[in-house]
Amino acid sequence: MKIWSSSKHAEYYFVKEIEVGISTLGKDFPLQVVFVDTPGLSDPVAYRSDLTKEYIRRANAVFVCIDAQKIQREEIETISSVFAFSSDDKSKVHIIATHWDILNDPETDWAEQKNYLVKRLTGKAFFDKEAHATENIMYSAAFIYNLCRDYDSLSKKGRIALKRFALNFEYELPADLRKMKDKTNVAVIMKVIREKLAANYKKLLSREIQGKFINIIHNFNRVAKEKKDLMNELMEASRSSKQELEQKICEQQTKRDVVRHSAEQLREIIKQVKFKTKTRTDLICGKLRLKLSEGKR
Questions:
Q1: Which alpha helices (DSSP H) does the chain contain, by range?
Q2: Quick check: pTM over 0.85?
Q3: What is d(CA 73, CA 233) in angstroms, rounded to the nearest whole number?
Q4: 195: exposed, middle or buried (Cβ count in 10 Å: 0-12, 13-18, 19+)
Q5: CA gap 193, 91 in Å, rounded
Q6: Residue 123 DSSP one-character state
Q7: Residue 276 predicted with pLDDT over 70
Q8: Domains of the chain in sequence order
Q9: Peptide bond into 106 cis (omega under 30)
Q10: Do residues 58 and 45 lie in contact, with contact meaning Cβ atoms separated by under 8 Å?
Q11: CA angle centred on 284, ends 279 and 288, rounded to 5°
Q12: Which one, of 186, 182, 151, lies nearest residue 169 by Cα?
């Protein structure tokens, strides 16, 4: 599956989605709960980036994983984008700082980092209260958790990594495996998933359906109002058009009357001109004939 999920392979850029199963969940875990590992908001493939935005909007819970060693401007911008797409319910956003165990002094360094994140992520665009931020910002050391879980079948490299972790916190192997697993904080994250989400999936589903129903009613009312307004506009336009048409007809009639009157006047003028011209011509011709007659005598 690596060639389809790693950006180091060309095939990665043509993948639409990858569906996998989780075999480690308990039998009592609700089948209605679906986990989606989104491609990311900055995925080079626009389709997958848009898909991530849509999943964030629709999800009942969003877990944003950031590297505990790299809590910088870029990570804050990513978190800000997630909050922007979760504006309907910001409390569903959970921040998970991974690789906690690689910090120089995990407990002290994390205390400072979490304090910074709580203050930075509390406000109008983020968590409403510091209490929500404190509860929803967690660390994890999943790699160490897996090493503890698979202790009996670890490779030499795995055992060295686990021994190094045990030495940092003065644990004894294998006696303190349970304490070490608890230290990774994975159990706390699983508790959030089980108690906040899995146990309440019916309530969450009901709320989601109710929200969709309210949106449908809102859209129906909006469309109905738009249609009503459009019909009113058409009726008003129809009345206005009729009045405008009657006004234009009246204006055209007036223009025709003016033209007709002007034509009649012109005809009368031409008639008078013809009459006067004929009279004048007859007079001139009469005088010419008289002159001719006198000349002959």
A1: 2-5, 46-58, 73-84, 106-120, 130-136, 142-149, 156-168, 177-183, 186-191, 201-296
A2: no
A3: 52
A4: exposed
A5: 14
A6: S
A7: no
A8: 2-141+184-199 (3.40.50)
A9: no
A10: no
A11: 145
A12: 182
How far apart CA 214 and CA 130 sit, in angstroms, is 31
Answer whether 79's CB lies under 8 Å from 102's CB. Answer: no
Structure-token pair, residue 112: 């400072």
> Which is nearest to 79 in space by CA: 129, 126, 19, 30?
126
d(CA 181, CA 143): 10
Kind and range of the H or E element at 97? strand 93-98
pLDDT digits (tens, 9 = 90+) for 130-186: 999 999 999 999 999 999 999 999 999 999 999 999 999 999 999 999 999 999 999
Question: Is 144 buried (19+), middle (13-18) or exposed (0-12) by CB count in 10 A?
Answer: buried
Q: Tens digits of per-residue pLDDT, 26-69? A: 777 777 788 888 888 877 788 888 888 888 988 888 999 999 98
CA atoms within 13 A on the CB side of 24: 3
What tokens appear for 35 in the block?
């986990």
Q: Which helix (H) or strand (E) holds 63?
A: strand 62-67
Single-letter residue type at 122:
T
